Amino acid sequence: MRQVVLDTETTGLDPAQGHRVIEIGCLEILNRRITGATYHVYINPERDIDAGAVQVHGLTREFLCDKPRFADVMGEFLEFVRDAELVIHNAPFDVGFLDAELARLDEGPVKRYCGVTDTLKMAKGLHPGQKNNLDALCKRYGVDNSGRSFHGALLDAQLLAEVFLAMTRGQETLGIEVAPPPRSAGLAGTRRGPLPVMRAGDAERAAHEAYLVAMSKECGEIPPW
């Protein structure tokens, strides 16, 4: 399975108000292994950037003025993501912006080219009532994000890739091998003490919940257990 972890930075919060994509970062996962293949580009939005957005990602109009436009990079971007499953945190936000950019060029929506998995929706199912932004998930799953002073599309995609793989660990982390008891003569009728109860830890419960989420996604229904 080929998956592409994707993140964008934008000029503001709403593409319906004319806000644009200014950075795209993508990282490839193939058969649950990060391959090292990436796609990263800064984009000239040909418009001002909201002050609040600059505080988040640090990208200014002056920095972007000599960068290519989305129309210039659309072909290579679609080539990188085509037929992959996009893994995005809060996918409706990024997909909404990308769909708006593609519509300006009379191209179809993102889902015409690839599938989409929303890791925010997945995290809310695994950890209801808790913080599930990328920083919180990095802390929960032990992913080092100490170098993240600003939001950056490629850096955030790299962090999300590690979080996603940790969230979706399945059977390989839940396998239990039970060795047969040794044969001993003369033990029939021996009285035994109470068996110790080994309770699952937080990491094991999280891995089990992630496995059930993946199973329900494939089966189309929530497992009864």
Question: Could you walk me through the main structural features you see in this protein, from its secondary elements to its overall organization?
Answer:
By secondary structure, the protein is α/β, with parallel strands linked by helices. It has a single domain, classed as Nucleotidyltransferase, domain 5. Helix content is 40%, strand content 16%. The protein is built from nine helices and five strands, in the order βββαααβαβααααα. It has helices at 51-57, 61-64, 70-81, 91-104, 119-126, 134-141, 153-167, 171-174, 202-219, and strands at 2-10, 21-30, 33-42, 85-88, 115-118. It has a five-stranded mixed β-sheet with strand order 3-2-1-4-5. The longest helix has 18 residues, at 202-219. The protein is globular. The protein starts with a strand and ends in a 6-residue tail after the last helix. 28% of the residues are buried. The model is unreliable at 171-190 and 218-222 (pLDDT under 50).
Structural class: alpha/beta
Helix count equals: 9
Tertiary shape: globular
- In total, the number of domains comes to 1
Amino- and carboxy-terminal Cα gap:
27 Å
Could you estimate the helical fraction of the residues in percent? Answer: 40-55%
Radius of gyration, taken over Cα atoms and rounded to an integer in Å: 23 Å
Q: How are the strands of the largest sheet arranged?
A: 3-2-1-4-5
Percentage of residues in strands: 15-25%
